[in-house]
Amino acid sequence: QVQLVESGGGLVQAGDSLRLSCAASGRTISRYTMAWFRQASGKDRDLVAAIGWSGGRTYYAASVKGRFTISRNNAANTVNLQMNSLKPEDTAVYYCAADLTVSSWPGNLPRDYNYWGQGTQVTVSS
After folding, report:
1. Residue 59 and residue 52: Cα distance in Å, rounded?
2. What Cα–Cα distance (Å) separates residue 48 from each residue in 25, 28, 76, 108?
3. What dihedral angle (degrees, nearest 10) is formed by the CA atoms of 5, 16, 123, 94?
4. Facing residues of 81 across strands?
5. Could you read off the pLDDT tens digit of each residue along the chain, which spans 126 residues?
6. Which of 10, 55, 104, 113 is the least crowded, having the fewest Cβ atoms under 10 Å away?
7. CA atoms in the 13 A half-sphere facing the CB of 29
8. 10: left (phi > 0), else alpha (psi -120 to 50), else beta?
9. Three-state SS at 89
10. Interacting residues of 42 by C-beta distance below 8 A, sequence separation 6+
């Protein structure tokens, strides 16, 4: 079992930056595909970014490409999401997710990932 704990969320103004962190425990995540999803109030949970086990392969949703950067530190068992130039539409609960065998890269759907954190709220005011 993999336990995931997110941190770093908060209330910021449009144009600000935030760095989300996801700390894994229970197992090393070095061979896991890791991802960040987000869910705005009343909306579906959508994939924001994903990173392959080596860090050499990344995916970004069109809405965040160029503003967000996903990274991982396998030695530290952590995954980060650097979010720059935040917009009000980025407001959501952000979830860290992990899976050992994502069937179809990058795993666009929540059901593609077996392990989830509890989420961290990001609120961007205009």
Report:
1. 9
2. 22, 23, 22, 9
3. -30
4. 20, 70
5. 999 999 999 999 999 999 999 999 999 999 999 999 999 999 999 999 999 998 889 999 999 999 999 999 999 999 999 999 999 999 999 999 999 988 889 999 999 999 999 999 999 999
6. 104
7. 29
8. left
9. helix
10. none
Q: Which tokens go with 32?
A: 């896991």
Residue with tokens 């980025």: 90
Beta pairing, strands 10-13 & 120-125:
parallel
* pLDDT confidence of residue 103: 80
Q: Which two tokens stand for residue 92?
A: 């959501």
- The residue assigned the tokens 């959501």 is 92
The partner residues of 33 in beta bridges, in order of sequence, read: 99
Residue 90 is encoded by which pair of tokens?
A: 């980025």
Q: What CA–CA distance (Å, rounded) separates 121 from 100?
A: 26
